[in-house]
Design a protein that fits this description.
The structure is a single chain. By secondary structure, this protein is an alpha+beta fold. The protein is built from twelve helices and five strands. The protein has a five-stranded mixed β-sheet, sandwiched between helices. Helix 7 runs parallel beside helix 9. The N terminus is likely disordered.
Length: 285
Amino acid sequence: MSRLTLALVALVGILGGGLAVSLWNKPATTDTAAIRSVVEDVLKEREAATPAPVETASIDQDKLNPMIESYLMGNPRILQRVSEALDTQLRAEQRDKAKTMLAQMSDAIYNDPDHVVLGNPNGDVTLVEMFDYNCGYCRSALPDLATLLAEDPNLKVILKEFPILSKESVDAARVAVLVGKDKKVDYWTFHQALFSSRGKVTGDTALEEAQKLGMSKVDLALKMGEDDVSGALERNYRLAKSLNITGTPTYIIGNELIPGAIGLDELRGRIANMRACGDTVCTSG
C-alpha cells in the first residue's frame, strides 16, 4: 500500500475517531500537520517520477543542407521522379481548371451567331479552332484540318477569328467575319486562300479573295468597321481571356483546351476518344 493511501486511511481513522469522541462529549486531538506532511511527500515523489519534457534538437542548416545535396547528387533519379510527379499534378490541376471554365463558357463557345461552321453541323464531335491569318503554325496546321474534314463525315468544325499578331490580322479578320455572314459564299475556299497567300495577310488580301468569290470589295470595305463586326471579334477576345488563351492555333475538343498545332494524329486520337468514352483521354477500367 502506498504512503498516500496510508495517509488517507490514517486521516479517515482520525476523523472517525474524532467524530466518535465528539459524540461522547470528549475532546479529540487531530495530528493534521503530520498527515499534510505525508501527503506532500507523496506528491513530491510522483512529481519526481514524471518524465521531463524532451527538448527538440535544433537543426543546423549548415550541416543539413550539404547532406541533402550529397544524397540527391548520389541519387539523381529522385529529382527526376519529383519533377515528373509535379508535372503530372500541375497538368491535372490545369485540366480540371480548363474543364470548369469550358463548362461555364459553353454557350459562347458553341452558340455564337457569327462563328463559322464547317463539316457536319450535326456531327457527333465538335472541333473548335481559334486562329490568326498571320499565324505560321495555323498555316502549317491547315492541311490537318482539311484532312479531318475530308475523311470524317461526322465531324463538326467551328472556326473563330482571333487576330492577335498585328493590325493587318485584325483587318483580315474583319473581312472574314463579313464573308462568314454571307451564306452564299464558300467560306472554306476563302479560308484556304488566305492561308495559301504569299507574305503577310492584310485587309486588302482578304478583300481580293472575297472579290474572287463574287463579293463587292467596296461594299465589304464600307462594312468592315461596323459595330456588328467589331462585336463578333470582341466576343472572341472575351472568350479567349476567360479561357486564358494567349496563342494560336488553340483547339477545343470536348472538355479539353489544346494550345498549339499538335498534329493530325493527335487530333484524330482525341476525336476517336470522344466517340469511345466521351472524353479526349480514355482510361481503362
